[in-house]
Design goal:
- The structure is a homodimer.
- Chain A has 2 domains: 6-85, Orthogonal Bundle (Arc Repressor Mutant, subunit A), CATH 1.10.10; 90-246, Chorismate lyase (3-Layer(aba) Sandwich), CATH 3.40.1410.
- Chain A contains 7 helices and 10 strands.
- Chain A has helices at 22-35, 48-55, 59-71, 90-96, 124-130, 177-185, 203-209, and strands spanning 75-78, 82-85, 100-102, 111-121, 137-147, 150-160, 189-200, 216-226, 231-239, 244-250.
- In chain A, the strands form 3 sheets. The first copy, chain A, has a 6-stranded antiparallel sheet with strand order 4-5-6-9-8-7. Chain A has a two-stranded antiparallel ribbon with strand order 1-2. Chain A has a two-stranded antiparallel sheet with strand order 3-10.
- In chain A, α1 packs across α3 (59-71) and α2 (48-55) crosses α3.
- Chain A binds chain B through residues 72-73, 96-97, 99, 190-200, 214, 216-219, 221-222, 239, 241-242, 245-251, and chain B through 72-73, 96-97, 99, 190-200, 214, 216-219, 221-222, 239, 241-242, 245-251.
- β7 (189-200) of chain A pairs antiparallel with β10 (244-250) of chain B, so a sheet runs across the interface.
- The structure holds a DNA duplex.
Chain lengths: 251, 251
Amino acid sequence: MNQISTRDIAPRSAGAPARQPLYAQVKALILRRLIDGVWRPGTMLPSEIQLGVDFGVSQGTVRKALDALAAENLVVRHQGRGTFVAEHDTDRALFHFFHMVGENAERQLPESQILSCRYGKATATEASRLALPKGDSVARIRRVRILGGVPAIVETIVLSEALFPEIGRDGDLPNTLYELYERRYEVTVARAEERLRATSASAAVADLLGIAVAAPLLEIDRTAFSLDGGPVEWRLSLCETTTHYYQAELV
Amino acid sequence: MNQISTRDIAPRSAGAPARQPLYAQVKALILRRLIDGVWRPGTMLPSEIQLGVDFGVSQGTVRKALDALAAENLVVRHQGRGTFVAEHDTDRALFHFFHMVGENAERQLPESQILSCRYGKATATEASRLALPKGDSVARIRRVRILGGVPAIVETIVLSEALFPEIGRDGDLPNTLYELYERRYEVTVARAEERLRATSASAAVADLLGIAVAAPLLEIDRTAFSLDGGPVEWRLSLCETTTHYYQAELV
DNA sequence: TAGTGGTCTAGACCACCTT
DNA sequence: AGGTGGTCTAGACCACTAG
């Protein structure tokens, strides 16, 4: 075995760019396999020891790489069972990708009612948010989300049609879209950025939510990114916040 | 040295409660010293090796405890220099406790203009938020915060006067209050919870911000907690969000 | 019982900072 | 030169899960 402490898994090119720690290289290699779909969501990864053999590093180094991936919620570790590629189940949606909670901070996944699913050419804003050429085909999904029996959120979701061909054509859009992206389109949402503003209800939105025109609404402007770092979804949510609020944690 | 792998640093009582890993026990012991002020913010902790000797564990176990504390931003580690108790400097305020950013996502700490600092008996809401008996003395600070030269936030801050005696009496309130809490009152804000809603400007707030009455505003309702886990500050911020937005990251 | 991740140790060496 | 945290290894044992 290679005795040199600081080294590379693959030989570096002549340019000799910034050297990364071994565990970071291992992490990048595993991430690459996740991106390439070598290991699909829900499947078990090889054991730490096996990965160590594969990469020519010790178990401890593999462990550090896997711990880092687990910290980003890309893999899930279970003592006695193994390490698994993270899936977008309802729990993940509820605790990681949905921050609206009820008065006593109780979490509850909203139901969804699809209003429409239309196709068109990306506007300048849409193209910018999705890193597409302007005019590319996009799908636009509109829906109302119901929290505690009350219509509380009006949402517009914009997707590249190239990435999600025929999405919504047969009107079978589930409540948690990220599961659909993952299972049917092999697109894994890894993280998202949200921009929050206060706005007021248009006549159309007020009607959908059963509130007064110009009532204050919380606007959540979300861009979701896939494993490879590219934006894959743009979502604009208008939330009624008299019975629910957006919860954030600062550390 | 003790050869038993799973053991306790201090002898357990007869009841034998849930056993924690050694590194978690070490972390709790270090945290206890931080709470008790044994090591003040900004000071250097003993080295990993020294702590290992003190607690009777290996350097690796101490390292895992310190890494966990660093992940919570309670200590800061510098290669070659040492491990230091985290301080509330402007960087921490900007990147961890202030989520309003400008249009191009640039961060900028707002200036502050104190409107008033008054004292009174805690209302039911205030008492609940600060875990005080109703009627306890509280200080209420009101200020306007200026972002990019424009008044953008009206803020009310409520503090227990027992915890922050005479705060603001001499009108010397700095821009970043958490530094003051830390230096003068030995209260370290360790984390905070925020609840966001949309609301609309009252006449008084509209006047302060130079906007129309009933204009939409983002309300941030923050409770800040000290190292020992108790609430120490309640803050209600009303933010104008046409030129700035609240930024959140989802993982 | 076998296999997995979780904990803990001991020791080596590296990278960085201060003196 | 000496001290610090950062990386990496090897090996032991524990805790949990499954067949």
